[in-house]
Amino acid sequence: MLLKAKPTTWQKVDSDTVVFFVSETAWKKELGELDRAFFSQVILHAEAQGFTGGLGKFFSYPMVDKTRVRRVLLAGTGKSADLNIYRIRKVAALLVKQVRGLGSVNLALSLTSEPVSMLKTAELVVGMTEGLFLGSYRFQKYQAHRKDEKLVEVWLLVSAARLEVAAQAIEQGKLFSQATNYARDLINEPPSLTTPTYLANEAKKLAKKGIEVEILDKKQIEKLGMHSYLSVSRGSEEAPKFIKLIYKAGRQRVVIAGKAITFDTGGLSLKDSKNMETMKLDMAGAAAVLGIFSVLAALKPNVTVVGLIAATENMPGSKATKPGDIVKALNGKTIEVLNTDAEGRLTLADVLSYAVTLKPEAIIDLATLTGACMVALGEEIAGMWSNNSQLTANLQKNAEAAGEKVWPMPLEEEYRDLVKSDVADLRNIAKNRYGGAVTAALFLEEFVAKIAWAHLDIAGPAFEEKETPVNPKGGVGFGVRMLLNWLKSF
Ligand code: BES
Ligand code: ZN
Ligand code: ZN
Fold it and tell me: What's the whole-model pTM score?
């Protein structure tokens, strides 16, 4: 899809379809103010069809002659008072679906019309761009016969004064969407393809994009002392790969780590078939990290970023770790493994310990860690645990701008005893069955020393069971845009 800003108006453009954004209840007035004569027929027909201007409502009207515009499309943005980037992204994503059936391949979006002209240009255009690119994502590689018709040209019509800012915003929106869609692909690919070795090879490709890439194999991981991580891979034939990515810039340094269980069977604490169905998603954290690094050289944030991915399968092979086994993590703490399905925290224990040795300003981890987090916050919201309130506030602000939902959760000291073991320092499942997402976070905190850290449990929003306007079914690429926003703020 070609997307460009053009310093012209809807009267002068010769696209197949021109889109006007209008608000609920005020839409007639808004169109009247644009051009009463031109829109009088459109308004009559739209009204007769029950068009309201409500969020995500569309009305299409063919203009047969007297104009080069073949179709006018009204796009409802809801009540104008609280119009924001989140709703713009959603309307743009719905627009993609709307025009798919119309046979339109060339669209012009009038951004000089109310109510969108009220928004800041950068915000508006980033939202539009992301909505268009994220909304047109499809994973159809394995469906030869299903080729959805694609938009080929979209022009954003802006005033000359807004052109420069709009062009930059398009570039950012494109980069953020590309990174997100790449993460989606990694999650959606079948799990026997996306092995730890596959992820390592994807990481190696980033070397061409200005990223330093280091891959540690099993021997090197052993030598470092990451026995907790390795205990997860013991039941698998696939070799574990520890992936380290570095983007160098600025004096400050942060670590972004992603859980990378390329398939989670549960190990000997085997999942039932229903719960195992979607477990290719268990590397969504790592997919987000790879997505982020795929655009860092182009985005050029002013901060050094280290990406860490401890990739492995979790399988119930004959060498698999058994409930009751005790393993020692890189930071010296011992862990009694009582449930081999609580494997994410075992890999992250070593990843976080390793991150601490790099002495970064902050550590962020993204992990599809617990079903309990989905019980607590549902499928759309990630839980966020942090030992630093400023980091929490920062991340939440950047998530909001990205259209991603995170909510702060407590590191409750009273619960810490629940992850203490009788025979080792820690146990990998809590002593009781409540607050499982909180006790998982408390377990992770044992490995971050005193460094500012935020843990994002993305078990819910990582994978969409049903299509939403912006997110397709399957991998979402959650966390990519919020963290790119955050890195950009350094
Ligand atoms: N990968 C799962 C968590 C998960 C579940 C992510 C559903 C996405 C959707 C994780 O490894 C796991 O199995 N967690 C257990 C922990 C329990 C054994 C303490 C869980 O949540 O049931
Ligand atoms: Zn598991
Ligand atoms: Zn898992």
Answer: 0.97
